[in-house]
């Protein structure tokens, strides 16, 4: 590839591309030793402007393949570049693969030829959707499904659908966990399970469905994590509704999954203890706050002095929510060891959600209690407390992202 073109593609310089294309109209046909075109490089790096200009100069680049058989859409999907994926999808409505030659030919939007552009497979048999889900890019996966629903049940060289390969902890998923956030494959798996355009009944070359692959992993020495068990439960439910007329591998039971496990996970034990301790502390503090109302009681009537104010009413409601939510968590977690597998599938998720609710309610109680007790003539300390309290959930989400909503197991 021409060094100037390579530099322009890496930098995403549209001006440089226009200058080079004006001097040498065929320059975009040059490739790197890996047979990547300038569009491949720009797509992988997320340079949507450069990609659009390159397609205007040479529309055939859309279906060009590198040494691994990847098109620019494969690389954009693998890298999670949503803007580039949207651009390439839009251009795929007017250019598609022609037969077995890989040469582009004009097609009308929505035609079979245009749809084929999104179903092109690399040498491993992966479509762009396979690339997106195994790298955990759920937003890209959704764009591809919206553009071409049939790619949801496209098979790779091993006869695996996208749902087969996005299992958290799976062989291909784990290989990418060093590079991508751990939440990615989980989010992709949940997205595909909920999308009715994805067929959960497809069997791979070994005759395994996505559900039976999770069970197969559970039969090994490795212990399934909470999300794999949650996915197993959801897949079992979807198979029961949508695969009644198909012959699928036998379904494992809660008892069989429990029997395959070597023992209780030490981390799981500590997590249950932590949840129980936090819930107990919140229940204790919120219960005590009920009898030590902010502002005190009237000596003559025995009622709360500030009972008529809106802030006090908010305090009472939020304090009650915090206490009752934490009490439910405590009672649910008492039975954690009776059936750890079923507990992880059902009670643990609700326990985590209720703990979040209790913590948020406790923060609201703090803000309203301070607002009630601070003198009306100097409200600024109360406003500072409210600002700090309101920023606390935002700070947690800023640090943890979406993982704050998921069970840390």
UniProtKB/TrEMBL annotation:
Location of this chain's protein in the cell: Membrane
A Pfam family this chain is assigned to: PGG
Residue segments, region Disordered: 93-113, 162-188
Gene3D superfamilies reported in the protein's UniProt record: Ankyrin repeat-containing domain (1.25.40.20)
Keywords: ANK repeat, Membrane, Repeat, Transmembrane, Transmembrane helix
Bilayer topology annotation: Multi-pass membrane protein
GO annotation, cellular component aspect: plasma membrane
Polar residues: compositionally biased ranges: 93-110
Stored InterPro entries: Ankyrin_rpt, Ankyrin_rpt-contain_sf, PGG_dom
Position of the signal peptide: none
Location, primary (coarse class): membrane
Top-level division of the source organism's lineage: Eukaryota
Sequence intervals crossing the membrane: 275-294, 314-338, 350-374, 380-400
Keyword Membrane tagged: yes
Keyword Transmembrane: yes
Protein name: Uncharacterized protein
Species in which this protein is naturally found: Aegilops tauschii
